[in-house]
Amino acid sequence: MADAYDFDLFTIGAGSGGVRASRVAAAHGARVAVAEEYRVGGTCVIRGCVPKKMLVYGAHFAEDLEDAKSFGWTIEGKRFDWARLRDSVQTDVTRLEGLYGQTLSNHKVTVFNERAAITGDHQITLASGKVVTAAHILIATGARPLIPEFPGNEHVITSNEAFHLDTLPRRILIAGGGYIANEFAGIFNEFGCKVTIANRSDTILRSYDAALRDRLLQISMVKGITFLFHAEFEHIEKQADGTLLVKLTGQEACEYDAVMVATGRVPNIEGLGLEAVGVETGKKGEIVVDAFSKTNIDYIYAVGDVTDRVQLTPVAIREGQAFADSVFGPGEPYAVDHSCVPSAVFSHPPIAAVGLTESEARNSLGNIKVYQADFRPMKNVVAGRNERSLYKMIVDAANDRIVGIHMIGPDSPEIMQAAAIAVKAGLTKADFDATVAIHPTMAEELVLFK
């Protein structure tokens, strides 16, 4: 590596992608430094998917404890303590943060717990005023919740603050129709809050198969969640008693105890000094990169949500790995394949998907076959719960290859991980038909489609 620089790699941002890239580059022998102004671990570990999944687990007990009666269990004096769950989650977040820091330390990565900006060619200046140089710079600063502009928007919270609430709101309005809105709607609803979702369009989870979207909408409404469509903020007024009077388009003004916005995320590029060296950005502020995560500046790269390619933690990790291997490893450079990425929505019940939706498959392939299983899981039957699961398999009629699998129901994300391997590998419907079912399971529906 070039000894003319202080470091071979300087990473700005210690989230999932930045930590992976830094650790792997160091393992390849590079001299690596990371700057993180908040907490090591990034959005996923500190205020995203990890603590959110812990809240999801906590929320599931509301229905599990009720269903337990039908399975012979008597539970006396049950009650929910939000503060206890909140603090337990934050304790584990702190534990994970320590493990991420330990990983960097074990690989002899220098960590600067402060903000960093690019201030010249191969040059980074830290908030303390310290100036360092690096042969390569990686930007992995992630994204943050978008707060729409409207009168009174200073009174809203985002998913960031939702993890730290002092008390649960009796009535909460959640703006948005994506996975964050629907996940927190399910969480708060199970905790006993009255939840209303306001969406500016008439579609929730627009990237998912229509049948799954409709099923989640139906189930959510049965659970007591209210949906307002074509509703955007006009204004919010904080009243003397602390409640929020919210006026949405097409709706009468209504009082809520909290308003949460989940209307998208924007890349964190402010103050990075991108303009100092001319790094190209896109219309949404995303850093423009090629297939190998390289920007228009030869020695500057970017991975993760700041590039707005696929905003998923495992994708950022793969991008970080590929960058480090390609730039510092002994092998040939390689790019991440962003096609056929599996995903999940940890709603109540959860959704999982991989590949093309039915609509996408019809538009791109023309002749397809659609297999569907609509059933009540055995547990729901015994519990007297009418909630039904839905599995769909999309097959290219020309070659029998499975091009999409879509599921809503208990444990769908856990089942999907293995199913996604089959779709990515290009297996056929016949391959699934030839596999013996594990009975009785929900997953067996995948090999019993007719």
Question: Could you walk me through the main structural features you see in this protein, from its secondary elements to its overall organization?
Answer:
With 450 residues, this protein is α/β, with parallel strands linked by helices. The protein folds into three domains: 7-144 and 266-328, FAD/NAD(P)-binding domain, CATH 3.50.50; 153-263, FAD/NAD(P)-binding domain, CATH 3.50.50.60; 349-447, Enolase-like, domain 1 (2-Layer Sandwich), CATH 3.30.390.30. Helices cover 32% and strands 23% of the residues. Strands 1, 2, 3, 4, 5, 6 and 16 form a seven-stranded mixed beta sheet that branches. It has a five-stranded antiparallel beta sheet with strand order 17-18-21-20-19, sandwiched between helices. α1 (16-27) packs parallel to α9 (313-328). The chain is globular and about 70 Å long.
Number of helices: 13
Strand content: 15-25%
Counting DSSP E segments of at least 2 residues, the number of strands comes to 21
What is the annotated CATH architecture of the largest domain? 3-Layer(bba) Sandwich
CATH uppermost class of the largest domain? Alpha Beta
> How many structural domains are formed by the residues?
3
The shape is globular
Low-confidence stretches: none
What is the rounded Rg?
24 Å
Structural class, judged by helices and strands?
alpha/beta
* Assigned CATH superfamily of the largest domain: FAD/NAD(P)-binding domain
* Biggest sheet record: 7 strands, mixed
Q: Round the mean pLDDT to the nearest integer and report it.
A: 96
What is the CATH topology classification name of the largest domain? FAD/NAD(P)-binding domain
